[in-house]
Design a protein that fits this description.
The complex is a heterodimer of chains A (about 120) and B (about 110). Chain A is mostly beta strands and about 120 residues long. Chain A has strands at about 5, 10, 20-25, 35-40, 45-50, 60, 70-75, 80-85, 90-100, 110-115. Chain A contains no helices and ten strands. In chain A, a hairpin with a 4-residue loop joins strand 7 and strand 8 (about 80-85). In chain B, strands 2, 4, 5, 6, 9, 10 and 11 form a seven-stranded mixed sheet that branches. A four-stranded antiparallel sheet of chain B has the order 1-3-8-7, with no helix packed on it. Chain B is an all-beta fold and about 110 residues long. Chain B is globular, with a radius of gyration of 13 Å. Chains A and B meet through loops of A and strand 5, strand 9 and strand 10 of B.
């Protein structure tokens, strides 16, 4: 069955960087884009963008251009989200989701940014 | 950007009774291929969202048939025929006809 397993919680200081991983199994990794979704504490879901797992081309939602980078390691069916120059407002749960219709989700990774 | 709105934002429900959530988009969600890419998700506290319905009315595997999706163009509805205790949580509509966007969520509780 399709599974997306994300890396564990992170506690970072402002200005630092964080990388979240999302390892896929149970399907052909390169057949679906991998999307990233942010959920701030007590808030709704925001699409951050996605990466074409075939070409490696990323597409970023407007609010997430500049400090977010999507990448891949197709040899291990894994997608990555890197956020640089972290700010307290980046504290959130970050989800990966399969495809443009988000049919399967990772369990979420909590990133806390605090001095 | 396509803005998604939902109503109500909070929905007290009674077990065994029906419930309905409305979702509206700021633009038509009909894609050039004729399909409408409107999905519904359910999220319980501390859990990732789970997709219930896609392309307006198609249930995902394992989703009970008490969940029904309908609508067209810019107006859509999720109906639960008889609410069960496991249905509490937050429901989101999402469009992926254009760059994806989610509704604000509707909190359903008993």
């Amino acid at each position: 069955q399709v599974q997306l397993v994300q890396s564990g919680s992170e506690l970072k200081k402002p200005g630092a960087s964080v990388t979240v991983s999302c390892k896929a199994s149970g399907y052909t990794f390169t057949n679906f884009v991998m999307a990233w979704v942010r959920q701030a504490p007590g808030q709704g879901l925001e699409w951050m963008g996605w990466i074409n797992t075939n070409t490696g081309n990323p597409m970023y939602a407007q609010a997430f251009t500049g400090r977010c980078v999507f990448s891949l390691d197709t040899s291990v069916n894994t997608a990555f989200l890197q956020i640089t120059n972290l700010k307290p407002d980046d504290s959130a749960v970050y989800f990966c989701a399969r495809g443009s219709a988000f049919d399967s989700w990772g369990q979420g990774t909590t990133v806390t940014v605090s001095s | 950007d396509v803005v998604m709105t939902q109503s109500p934002l909070s929905l007290p429900v009674t077990l065994g009774q029906p419930a309905s959530i409305s979702c509206r988009s700021s633009r038509s969600l009909v894609y050039s291929d004729g399909d409408t890419y409107l999905s519904w998700f359910h999220q319980r506290p501390g859990q990732p969202p789970r997709r219930l319905l896609y392309k307006v009315s198609n249930r995902d595997s394992g989703v009970p048939d008490r969940f029904t999706g309908s609508g067209a163009g810019t107006d859509f509805t999720l109906k639960i025929s008889r609410v069960e205790a496991e249905d509490v949580g937050v429901y989101y509509c999402m469009q992926s006809t254009h760059w994806p966007s989610f509704g604000p969520g509707t909190k359903v509780d008993i």
